[in-house]
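Predict the 3D structure for this chain.
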Amino acid sequence: MAGTVAERDALKIEDGHLNNSLGSPVQADVYFPRLIVPFCGHIKGGMRPGKKILVMGIVDLNPESFGISLTCGESEDPPADVAIELKAVFPDRQFVRNSCIAGEWGEEQSSIPYFPFIPDQPFRVEILCEHPRFRIFVDGHQLFDFYHRIETLSAIDTIKINGDLQLTKLG
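Done. Predicted structure below.
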């Protein structure tokens, strides 16, 4: 197979559908044109119970932090509500989460059984939306739950990713 690993693993958009590296269609509710950090993408139809967001990437060699946020739109002024912000902080070995509604940040949560991210290594984060909460899985292991602070789940229609990582796949 020709090309770099990133080229082989990258998803391509053709006719409005995500395709995997073999060219077969991948059913997806999330459309991402380019996996460039900082990243902002639209979640088709917003969130709902049973919907899952997948973020795969590689942590940079000397990371400080990276963040994944699910927001209600892209607005910066006034800032869009943040349903959940996940932030991996490497010096503190913390994976903190919070939300921001009407410009007010809530109580930050930081307890985790272990810190799952390793510099220069790949990772897989899954955000599963359930009726009362988001369930967060890292590399297939449930790490924590985050109970919804936004009442209208369908309003959560944007994903933003920034920091010290390379994105390899979103879905």
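The helical segments are 5-9.
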